[in-house]
Amino acid sequence: MRKIKVKAYSTSANLGPGYDILALAHNAFADELVMEIDKIHAGNRIRIIGNNVPPEAKKNSAGLPLIKLFNEFDIRESVTIHITKNIPVGSGLGSSGSSAAASIAAANELFSLSLSRDEMIRFAMEGECASSGTPHADNVAASIYGYVVSVNSVNPPRAYNIKTEMDLRFMSIIPDVHIPEKTKLARSMVPFSITMESGIRNSRNLASLISGFASGKRDLIRDGMDDGIVERSRLSLFPYYTSIKANVMKKNAVGVCVSGAGPTILILYDNETDLHGIEDKIDQIMRSAGITYRRSYSTLSGGMEIE
Amino acid sequence: MRKIKVKAYSTSANLGPGYDILALAHNAFADELVMEIDKIHAGNRIRIIGNNVPPEAKKNSAGLPLIKLFNEFDIRESVTIHITKNIPVGSGLGSSGSSAAASIAAANELFSLSLSRDEMIRFAMEGECASSGTPHADNVAASIYGYVVSVNSVNPPRAYNIKTEMDLRFMSIIPDVHIPEKTKLARSMVPFSITMESGIRNSRNLASLISGFASGKRDLIRDGMDDGIVERSRLSLFPYYTSIKANVMKKNAVGVCVSGAGPTILILYDNETDLHGIEDKIDQIMRSAGITYRRSYSTLSGGMEIE
């Protein structure tokens, strides 16, 4: 019987001023998903087997988009999905988005649907509802496209890669913190309206960040990866962030941001960065905040890998 | 006696979603400015001679930044400035910015001040006060840097070029319309606050526009050169714009925007654009609006040329 195996990487959305726009994929972690047709059970049944995932399809990031896809393409067969979850759940590293993207990519292959990447985003976005209540496209776009992506439109979804020649390297600071209904909460903290002035300031940063990726100029990324709206509105969720950011930039990181809705902090670094200085400083900050954490090192990764 | 001659090109600011951020320089028009030391009159006197320019230094875009520069560098000599104004005044093509930039560049050369481009922006911005009451950096940044520029910060001014390999071509539609105190009025129409949602939509467009320039993908520019905040708030000033925009995009232009605070409309086109179709359509639209206008064709230009 035919089995499709998909590997989908961890992702970080927002990147400072790019709320609901920018994201990137990194090889810090990767989920693996195997999908096969279930010949025994008739009638589009979706069976999900895995560690640390809700077994009910409707409540599962991999299951919900599949229900939508099965309905739209009138697929009557049943499938079994085995998920090996390696991306930490609820950490802001795109765990739910990766499962959703992997599930749609596997079905696309298994049923020869020839979906475009943007069509895959449309279905995979539904998976984000399962975990956060709101469909948002940035993490799934990064899972599907790989590298640095920008979401141009959500309805219909349209994304594209921002090409960069930079050897981007990342340190993820993953606190052992569980915030219930985190993404829903974090999204509710974003202000409904902003002043034009702060909008222009953030847009300047966004322009600088994108130009930095495209041109390979680290100073433009340093200037640009700074957010005065969304990150600021959520500071109470990540009390350690302000101090980490100030210290990390002093030690010449390329940039630092909250990864998605947090609590993970993503640090961009290169050869000019005092990496050990940063590690020591973060140890200090987190110890005095009484929060345990782990570090993960990664580089940019491509999109999903399909076997 | 030493004479410095500077040629400064016309510019278009905003480019849709890049209000107070993006601008570009084109060779549609160029002002020429000649500056020489006036040995006869002592005591930092600034004499301005030219067609269609206010002779009083304080009220003149070339004079005002020079007063600031003379004060700051304690320059005691007098100068005579001859301005040949070719950029139409009050048209949204950066006429005042070009004079200001040319004046500062000439003084930089004449008095060997070794100003950086960003320092030149700082002084030249003052010239914008003479014509609009507000210092803004976008047009002077384009005059000084040339090509496509992004303003990263206004205080202190910091700008950079967005590199593009595209063979960008422009049609300027310059209506014979005079709006008194136009820039001041147009700036007062911009809303004080915006919804986060419309901010995100505009930021998506800005991201797409910049990525389009950087990658040479015309579709990203087509998607991105669309503004739902600033252009929309000023529509009553340019009643012909909505119809021009819709028709020009239908005929496959790369993009269309209001040039700065208008009334000029800037159209980006390439080989895929139905240029004659656009010309005919605009003739029709402007005729039925009862507005005479002229067209000008140009390409991207560099920064100032100094002899």
From TrEMBL, chains A, B:
UniProt-annotated binding residues for ATP: 88-98
Chief location: cytoplasm
GO terms, biological process: threonine biosynthetic process
Keywords: Amino-acid biosynthesis, ATP-binding, Cytoplasm, Kinase, Nucleotide-binding, Threonine biosynthesis, Transferase
Listed GO MF terms: ATP binding; homoserine kinase activity
Pathways per UniProt: Amino-acid biosynthesis; L-threonine biosynthesis; L-threonine from L-aspartate: step 4/5
Coiled-coil stretches: none
Domain GHMP kinase C-terminal residue range list: 210-283
Enzyme Commission identifier(s): 2.7.1.39
Subcellular location: Cytoplasm
Enzyme class: transferase
Reactions accelerated catalytically: L-homoserine + ATP = O-phospho-L-homoserine + ADP + H(+)
Annotated PROSITE patterns: GHMP_KINASES_ATP
Gene Ontology CC annotation, any one: cytoplasm
Residues in GHMP kinase N-terminal domain copies: 69-146
A Pfam cross-reference name: GHMP_kinases_C
NCBIfam families, sorted: PRK01212.1-4, thrB
Function (record text): Catalyzes the ATP-dependent phosphorylation of L-homoserine to L-homoserine phosphate.
Protein family per UniProt: Belongs to the GHMP kinase family. Homoserine kinase subfamily.
Protein name, per record: Homoserine kinase
Gene, per the UniProt record: thrB
